Amino acid sequence: MNQITTQLDRIIARLKLNEKLKGVKFIREHTSQSVEVNLSSFLAVVAVTDTALSKRFVGDYLSPSVKGEQFSARVQIFVYAPADENGNGLSEITCELMQGLKKADTEKIISEVSVSAIDFDADMNSIYRKVEFNMEFCLCEEV
Description:
Helix content is 21%, strand content 43%. The protein contains two helices and six strands. Strands 1, 2, 3, 4, 5 and 6 form a six-stranded mixed β-sheet that branches. A hairpin with an 8-residue loop joins β2 and β3 (66-80). α1 (2-16) packs across α2 (90-104).
């Protein structure tokens, strides 16, 4: 999970450099940070929902003496709109996130990016959309 978190942190850090996403606060799903219930700005909650690790030889591509670990993860970013905005700007922010992921993915590990329909979260008292994507990468070492 450490490698997945490291890769995801790099991608989120690059997303934060996007001028159009400056007003979005990014936090992890299970964090000790307190979250305001009536949001005053856009909030992006980042969650890794599914992970997999497989070890195998990468002989077909490199050499029979190279062993690799294949990491894969499904990531969801829940983007909540400010309570007093009634969802205004939510579609623009999620579209910018979707486009921003292409630029932030310098390692080319992201695939299958999608955005959900607008929904309402009663616990947060906020309208939200979900941006989802897969991350896959391999770490190789000599045997």
